[in-house]
Amino acid sequence: MKAPDGWARDEAASLKYGASMFVPNGKSFGKAEAIIYAEGRYNEDRTELARWVAASDRDWATEAGDNAKITTLPSVNPKVIINRYDNPSLKDQPVEVIAHYADRDKDGNSYVVRLAVSGRTEAAVRAAMPLLDKMIVGAKIP
């Protein structure tokens, strides 16, 4: 995944978290108000995307606590499910928006790709949301 315009890949954070982690130019992972990350999660059973996301969301809600909530958002691509995750108990990540889509590698292995905007504030996440839409439009979604 290529860094959006005005953003750079943070190599150390990407290695640490096993995902492509992007930060605004001039910021470091720990100092950015918002980050964007991209990761692929192996989908061994080839679970249909909506069912995979629903199961993942149930797990998140169980761990997140009583004040957490999930809201489905409109998507620029009908093959992409976008959810907003609010968890006020998290200091560094109280708001996160994740776009999920199904993909396969060259060997036919199934994955769910997650493109996310995560931030410390509502304003920071909202400011980065147009980049998420651009990344979805630019992705080669089967």
Q: Can you give keywords for this protein?
A:
single chain; 142 residues; Alpha-D-Glucose-1,6-Bisphosphate, Chain A, domain 4; seven-stranded antiparallel β-sheet
Can you tell me about this structure?
The radius of gyration is 15 Å and the shape is globular. The two termini are 16 Å apart. It is built from three helices and seven strands, in the order βαββαββββα. It has 142 residues and is an alpha+beta fold. The chain has a seven-stranded antiparallel sheet. It has one domain: Alpha-D-Glucose-1,6-Bisphosphate, Chain A, domain 4 (2-Layer Sandwich).
Write a concise synopsis of the structure shown.
The protein has 142 residues and is of the alpha+beta class. It contains three helices and seven strands; from the N terminus they run E-H-E-E-H-E-E-E-E-H.
Blueprint of the fold:
Elements: E1 7-9, H1 11-17, E2 20-24, E3 34-42, H2 49-64, E4 69-73, E5 81-86, E6 95-104, E7 110-119, H3 122-138
Antiparallel strand pairs: 1-2, 2-3, 3-7, 4-5, 5-6, 6-7
